[in-house]
Structures are given as C-alpha cells and as structure tokens.
Design brief:
Length: about 190
Amino acid sequence: MKLPSVMEGVGVALLASMAGAAVFAVLSVMLDTLGVFRLVVAGLALAYVLYLLLRNSERLGRLSVLALWFVIAGANLLLVTSPLLYVVIHLALIWLIRALYYYTGVLPALLDLGLMAVSLAVAIWAGETTHSLLLSLWCFFLVQALFVLLPTSFTQRSKHNAALTDDAFDRAHRAAEVALRKLTTLY
C-alpha cells in the first residue's frame, strides 16, 4: 500500500477548505446557517472518507464501510442537536476508517486519534480567532495531512522471520497447487 504524501494532503486540504467555504457561503444565504454547516460537515466528511478509501489498496469491506457511514451519518444528522457532538461523530467515523484501513496496530491508531483531537482543537481555535470557516477548515485538513507521517505499525519483523514466513507460505502454496492438480486429474 502506498500512502498518500503530505503534499497530496496539503492539496486535499486546500480543495476541501475552499469547497466547504464556498458551499457554505452560497447556501447560507438561502438556508439556515446551522443546517448548512451540518450539510457541509457531512459532505466534507463523505468526500474525505471516499478519498481515504480510494487511496488505500485494500478492497475488502469498502461497500460495508460506506453503508455503515451513511447509516451513522444519517442518524447523526437527524438525532444530534449539538454542533460540536455532530462534528465529533463525523471525526470518529473518519478515524475509525483510517484505523481500519491504514494501521496494523492499536498504538498507531491511538496516535491517529490524538492527531484527530489536535486537528479539531486547531480548527476550533482558528474559527474562534478569525471567524472564518475557510481558515478553520484549512487548519483542520492541514493537520489531517500529517497522518501519513504516523507509523502504520510499531512491530518490525526481522529479515530472518520474514524469510521463514515467506518460505512457509511458498511451501503451503506449492502444496495447495499439488493437491488441486491431484483433485482435477482424478475426475
């Protein structure tokens, strides 16, 4: 699996912050500001989840993850009244998807959870300081771009253990091929 780069994350941050701020500016003229904020958060979260799933080589479970995201995001939209809790639930979904698809251990996933908390704190600080959704989103996604610098695992296999595992796999693979050939030639 080839992780996205930090520069790619910066590009995603720029696009997401500009798109989110533009959609918010246009829709908030016609609709309720809090409702538009909730729609922008859900839209950006969905776009970021799709980005994460597309950038990962793992194919297993993508549809299930998306279906689960839609169910939880829909319940979040309908049931949660607090804007902060609404955002935190979306961030938890993003974190869960990254933990499942990008990390092989608990400790890297917990570090990513810490990065998620820092990015939320920075976004809140930027929003309170500048009163700009654009800068708040920019700061949030800019900190999120750093997730690629986190290690995917803290365990390292030695070259000897890797060679033994590969040899054992190769032996099992050859044995399976021989068994398959025997099965197909008997009938």
